[in-house]
Beta-fructofuranosidase, insoluble isoenzyme 1-like
Amino acid sequence: MINWEALEPAIYSSKPFDINGCWSGSATILPSNKPVILYTGIDPQQRQVQNYAVPSNLSDPYLRKWTKPDNNPLVVPDQGINATAFRDPTTAWLGNDGHWRILVGGKRKRRGMAFLYRSKDFVNWIKAKHPLHSSPETGMWECPDFYPVSVMGKTGLDTSFMGQSVKHVLKVSLNVTRCDYYTVGRYVRNKDKYVPNNNSVDGWSRLRYDYGNFYASKTFFDAAKNRRILWGWANESDSPHDDVQKGWAGIQTIPRMVWLDDSGKQLLQWPIKELETLRGKSVQVRNKVLKSGEHFEIKGVTAAQADVDVTFSLPSLDKAEKYDPSWTDAQKVCSQKGAHVKGGIGPFGLLTLASKNLEEYTPVFFRIFKAANKHVVLMCSDARSSSLKDGLYKPPFAGFVDADLADKKLSLRSLIDHSVVESFGAGGKTCITSRVYPTLAVFDDAHLSAFNNGTETVVVENVNAWSLKKPFKMN
């Protein structure tokens, strides 16, 4: 998943059922070990219909050619479905009753929903009376994803796995905000109903895979290594707050392993171990004290393309700023309290893709507040100072981190790749991807530093940083 060879498109518009477009879908491995792809096609009536394709030559290790049988489409929108908002079939799962099930994203007025379909033979599909799940005022649900996670350990599970020690995750990509949201909950199999946990908010304020430039993600079960892998797009031109919807494009993020946190309340994400094969020259820093207003450069690695893992130690939390309970929008808090707005504990973190004199830089940082009964951790990745070029979308991104500060430590790992900064806070509890376009901080002119702009001293307990090499095969 690091080295990739570009091949010809496997599926493209060629039949009446997809003549106006081939859109997103998912792959399923059938019991005979034969893969099948379900995808959305746009037919001559501009309806979104669900089609399937099978490999033309199973002996080809790359499965380069796919056949679209003439009995397509398999699923068409009935009279109760908006035919222009009906797309992105999921990986199928096999129930104990021998029936396959898939979800298709859609909406009814402003209610987002995941339509459920069942099939005995993977060809004839029947819509369930009720969607698996829906939520009011959320708009179109694109690219739904539904999969089991173990309540113990990091081991991934096949999409069809059922058991007592399992919870399920439902992810939806909201077309209105261009963000990926998820809940953790319970799949009631005999009713084909998904029930989010009581502590899993179901709506626009629900948990997100990533609080930055990240959209239209998909997971899959890697049977070879028993893990679930998450992949998304670092889209470059959408704003959740733009009045006018813009087109979007992007690059794929680093593949992430995903599993359930010990608390059972949220997922954890971490770059796959294979990424470490790209690590080159390294540098280590230990026990560097950062007083208020200080920063130090992390030298010895290529700052424009690096993997940096930092552990911050906080000698005292006594001077943390008071948390206002009305601060429910992390991004808004970050926009008001940026990297230069001095607080008590923080802002502290990394200055990535920085020019020599800090005309450009993308700060990734923490800020700690004191609420009534706990500390609240804010994590930001602020692109407002990332480029001198005008007209770019340069937002501050942020999310709250459910971090236990009993040991007074916080970790931050950032993967830097020229125009993308992917950051993982507190071991992957909160992730933020920023797409930035510096004009000065490029190639050898990019710099990397740790900083502290809080009033209280912060100790950089550990820094492990590596230059990242290019894959030997890349698209």
